[in-house]
Amino acid sequence: MSDEQELMPIEQQTENAEQLPQSGLEDAEATSERALVPLLVSQVDFYGDGLMVVLVEIGGERQVLVPHRQFCQYLGVDWSGQYRHVMHDTVLSTEVVSVAIATEFVPMRGRKRSYSTLSLPLDLLPGWLFGLTPSRVKPSLAPKLHRYRKECFRVLWQAFQQGSLWQNTQEVDPSAEEIYSWLARVGDRVWRARQRAIQAHLPATLTVEQWLRTLKHFGWRCAYCEQRPGVIIEHFIPLPLAGTTAENCVPSYYACNSKKGNVHPDFVSTIPRQVLNTIQS
Question: Containing H/E element for 192?
């Protein structure tokens, strides 16, 4: 794999040397509070491109995911623009998942750590690929895009069905460094949530220990859909009305957070009333 094709963490530059703004970083891979640790990580050769595939467990079911950014890099398209496209798509935005990838699988210039990367379910990969038109890539890469659109999903799916996808894999065992890094991100998330309340002169008593207990209580999943990862500290009652406290904060997924909005639970109509009542109790 060449330096140009090297998969890099989000804080590194994109291929066209554009740096993602800090506001984008806060919404993207680097801020995922509970990135899933994959059960297995594998790599499939696709005409010389090493495509990473991961196996995760979500809601008691195992799913095959593919990190999204690698396709942008191999096809020479701007990742930040494609990230925005995915997060604005009504289907892809609800299915994208953050996964912790260890650097043993993706070399990074002198760094040895893990980082979070947004991943798509394998069966939704064609939906994204066919959303790319040849005009979005360099003319020299148009044939490559055609090949990806025509064959990539079939190759990965056949490898999965035949069992060859996991023949050359490495099981993931989170190191102490990875665990500490995750705890540091949780602490930063809690601190920022408290700061918002402090600046508004509201109760700001949520602690890291309390938030970890809350995450465990909800099975590390979104309190609203109960399926996707709980990656956001959601104020059940809007922040201006109740502040940032253990009683008022629940984990939420991006799409569910947007669906509820900054609305008091008594007036929310986009989430089942039974779910809201269960959280409230």
Answer: helix 176-199
Give the angle 83-158-165 at the CA atoms, nearest 5°. 75
* 146 CB-near residues (< 8 Å, 6+ apart): 134
Of 36, 53, 37, which is closest to residue 45 (Cα–Cα)? 53
Q: What is the pLDDT of residue 176?
A: 58
Helices 176-199 and 208-217 pack at an angle, to 10 degrees, of: 110
- Write the DSSP symbol of residue 149: I
Q: Are 10 and 30 in contact (CB under 8 A)?
A: yes
DSSP 101-130: EETTTS-BTTB--EEEEEEEEGGGHHHHHT
pLDDT at 28 over 70: no
Q: What is the pLDDT of residues 169-215, one digit of tens each?
A: 454 455 555 566 667 778 888 998 999 999 999 999 999 989 999 98
Between CA 57 and CA 260 the distance in angstroms is: 26
Question: How much of the chain exceeds pLDDT 70, in percent?
Answer: 74
CB 184 within 8 A of CB 223: no
* Calpha distance 88→81 (Å, rounded): 11
Say how far apart CA 196 and CA 239 lie, in whole Å. 8
Q: How many CB atoms lie within 10 A of CB 202?
A: 17
